[in-house]
Amino acid sequence: MILDRPTLIFRATCPRCRVAATAIRVLTLGGLRLGPLDRTSADALAERMRAKLILRYGDDLRTGVRAAVTGLCHAAPRWIFLAGLLLVLGIFQ
Question: Rounded CA gap, 35 and 71, in Å?
């Protein structure tokens, strides 16, 4: 089992990629790390993987549905904790 957080790899020179990566990190409540790459490295990786946003989990590079499922799995405990905290605060007010 890999205990490290997955890293969302994106091209740092692309404004849309930066915004999308930041939005994904916010939606996962910080469950993902951001790994910006320079243009040449990101272009080479995107060409090989045929994707602009790539999730690195351990030694595995994931895109598409596999990346989304991995991100959701790492965000679920944070969302459950937040929902429980809001529920408890709502009950005791």
Answer: 14
